[in-house]
Amino acid sequence: MIISQPILAYTPSEIWSILVMQGFSGLSLFSVLLLMALGLAIIFGQMGVVNLAHGEFMALGAYMVYLCSEITTDHFPAFAPYYFLIAIVVAFVVTALVGIFVEWSMIRFLYKRPLDTLLATWGLSLIMQQAFRSIFGAREVTPTLPEWLMGSFKVTSSIDIPINGVFVMGLSLLLTGGVALYMFKSRAGLHMRATVQNRQMSGAVGINTGVVDRMTFALGCGIAGVAGAAFTTIGSTGPDSGSRYIVDTFLVVVFGGSGSMLGTIASAFGIAQAQSISEFFLEGTMGKVATLSFIVFILMLRPKGLFPSKVRA
Amino acid sequence: MKKIYQNVFGGNSGFIGLALLSLLIMVVLPLSLDIFRLNLVGKYLTYAFVAVGLVFLWGNSGVLSLGQGIFFGLGGYCMAMFLKLEASSPENTKIQSTPGIPDFMDWNQITHLPAFWAPFKSFPFTLLAVIAVPTVLAFILGTAMFKRRVGGVYFAVITQAVALILSLGIDGNQGITGGRNGITDLRTLLGWDIRTTSAQYKLYFLTCILLLVCILVSRYVLSTRIGRVLLAMRDREDRVRFSGYDVASFKVFTFCMSAAMSGIGGALFVLQVGFISPSLVGIVPSIEMVIFAAVGGKMSLLGAVYGTLLVNTGKSLFSENFPQLWLFFMGGLFIAVVMFFPNGLAGLWVTLQERLAMAKQRRQTRQREIPDDGLEAPEIAKSGGEQI
């Protein structure tokens, strides 16, 4: 981090290059926020479940990658360059299975009481955090990354683009595309949207809404798991990594207008750019404070977010 | 007189409940605990202010705020700023490069007192600020959101974000707020040493009395017509709105009232514990305070106090003996309260009372049946007994 100076101390051309540079770092923050928010956009935006344990599902995905990496280096060292792709699948499947269990044992009784899901899932997040601490230890862990994820592309002599950032960006775009295809082009996605719009009518035409709920929740959790897996390429994972992101994630979804995929993407982009640019001119935490205050201010003017959904509640 | 008794004390049963609570916190606990433990209880009771405010706001008006820590913290910081200025008189801070300003400012190369600190040299202003600062913030937030019909989950998420903003903001401005360590090393209140045992006893009783006053005020408000509107609003907001009531103003009112109570709690916390830090303002304490109210029963003002005492006692017992189990316990408590005891301890108590009343009624009917039915009566009684 460069020491912050008053904005007037820069020449216009310097400010331009700062904007470009911070814009790049904003892009990578954008893909991070988008990955975090995608799962929540499904669980909160579509189903209306306030899942405060979402961050812990991300951490679970990250721990799964760590576990895969440990197993690979211990038993199948030859497999090391490829394990990461399998680990992403493992992260998805495990978090989705945990999601199914949580939905079956807890969430399905609370659909009509959103404020109560909020408290219950907070309890779940505490339990998951302590479980991580008991199983994996209190220290932060990092999986051994394959060689091809390290290093950077040299674009010009002064600009380096790290490969892991590009990987996360690619993964988030891929996942967004996949979710959009699932929601708008597949039969299961049709059932999901139908259930959200009119539960009774969907039941009447033969959709098993209970199963749809469970699968939707599992999908959201699975995506959180993939997001967590992607994060291991950028930073380390600790028992409370998830809780650090939860408020930002919720703000992304609420700011975008819950129920709108496009809104989630737009708000993730806006928040990421605002944060990375303001972080340059203000000190680290104050940049975040400024961004969050701005979002809260906008939300007070436009409580339904940028792209309010027109679905009847 | 009778009306006041009915409204403020809640009639006979309400009065007995209140008397039992005062007996517990003002007689039983001070007599049975040493000053260290009593000081801890006093600290918990300051959280109970927040829990009582939440019963008012969440249980009776249906608005869940996940940012009550904001108001607790603001009240606490107002009081701490006054105490800190008193502790950093020019004589006490001779060794600093700028005497007369708090030590953490001196460490951060600040050479004059920031303007917003200056009014906190006055004690009356501080007392006013403890209540006014949280109330004004609640008024601004509440007006902005409730007038635009932001409610439910959105309100909860936004208040949570505000809690995060405030704790990060305090954390990030070490020079003027004390940063992560908070404001520490508070000694005297108007020359009265608050760290002595006798002062701690006095502050404990002050906390108890103010808590009881808060409960009585809340009870009074809930017994008036405002209280009826609040309850109606919780159950059928649209219908209240269509009847011509300005729902938003009622919500702003309860939000401000709960904020004021939290602020008082925060100030008393600082007096008893002797410091305040951003960790008491953020997301985690704000949610924990909700669980205090939920465990006690979100509809019961007295239940909130018991809930706070119980959860915190559990917390200190667990974290002293089984630190690993504490989060499992707390998490399990959240889930269990929501799924199995939505009305908390107070709900259990009501169910128990109903069971007892039903059993009593059954016994009475049975006794009446015996003379009527003569010889066959024992048979009926027996079959009735099997059903139980």
The chain-level mean pLDDT of chain B equals 84
Run of helices and strands of chain A: HHHHEEHHHHHHH
Secondary-structure element string of chain B = HHHHHHHHEEHHHHHHHHH
Q: Tell me about the biggest sheet of chain B?
A: 2 strands, antiparallel
> Quick one: biggest sheet of chain A?
2 strands, antiparallel
Structural classification of chain B: mainly alpha
Average per-residue pLDDT of chain A, rounded, comes to 82
Number of strands of chain B: 2
Strand content of chain A: under 5%
Shape descriptor of chain A reads globular
- Measured as a percent range, the helix fraction of chain B is over 70%
As an assembly, this protein is heterodimer
Strands in their spatial order, largest beta sheet of chain A: 1-2
Share of residues in helices of chain A: over 70%
Distance between the termini of chain A: 45 Å
What is the overall number of helices of chain A? 11
Rg of chain A over CA atoms, rounded to whole Å, is 20 Å
